[in-house]
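<discrete_fold_record>
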Amino acid sequence: MADANQSVTPQRLPLGTPEKPRKAAAPRRRRLSLDEYTAGISAGDRTVLARAITLIESSRPADRELAEQILETCKEHRNDSIRVGITGPGGAGKSSLIETLGLYLTRERRQKVAVLAFDPSSQLSGGSILGDRTRMTSLAGEEMAFIRPSPSRGSFGGVGQRTREAVLLCEAAGYRNILVETVGAGQSETAVRETVDCMVLVALSNAGDELQGVKRGVMELTDLVVINKADGNNIDAAERARSVAQDALHFFPASPSGWTPRAITCSAKTGKGMDELWNAVLEFIDVARNNGWLMRARRRQRRFWMREMIEQELTRRFESHPLVRQQQAELERLVSEGKTTPFMAARSLLRTYFGPLAETASPRAQRPAGSKQNDG
């Protein structure tokens, strides 16, 4: 037997033996123009729509510029769209419920549906599983359905940083019904509420225990509680859970939408209750639209996302500032070793970015260090 530490000489091919041809690199996809993007989206081309969402999620400056132009041409194409946020703890069957509901909408009601699903990103690698398209195989094969899994990339609220823009693109592509699935990681659902019209919380038949673990803020934002897996031997338990959830909803303040939140049961496995679920959503939309709340809510949402965009852009510029990047690692080391406080380290970096006079200067004078005065 050869020594394990002995090096193995690679076998050489005899002279004259033709080398095995290497696989040619896959050609890069041609970059679409603004006109091609807008035409494809307006025509409902799912491939172009997917590429447009990828573009708006990109952090490359060139991609951001084109993405902003696409969004400006699309804007809000329709006022009759229905945006539904679906949240809940892990294991409640959100993805299964969304697929069954999507199939009900495409097959029974003959309506287009777009699913925007967000998976939690790893804090270490930044990657995520993005398994929703794999799990929703039946819905993915429907001509009238569009499924887009995206990483949350650490953004709070259970959705991605470009959720609202993705919703607008789907609406411009002709999708009236937009289903937004959150990561369900127990985070604040404020960002979800500021994206959708109706909020659905999915729970199981042990809802009494589950609802104890759901944050009060989530319940206050919920319009519908759906007890899933109400099938087989679980029907009675699901009905008891529905009653518990309905009682719990009475303890929360009245919704500003004028809608009285309710709890229902359904089964993603058998499809039972999908009609009741969607009719409840439509009833909510009618109430909110007729009393003017829906219009006011969408106006508020636009202001919210404008502020979010400002914060995101300020953060991006701050983190890419050369002097900040140069000092940040050392200050983080000092903070971790307890040699300075997070407060002092943060103030030092902000002073580096805005300049030494930032703390005493007026808002008009607070410009990044090195920026030119151009006030006329």
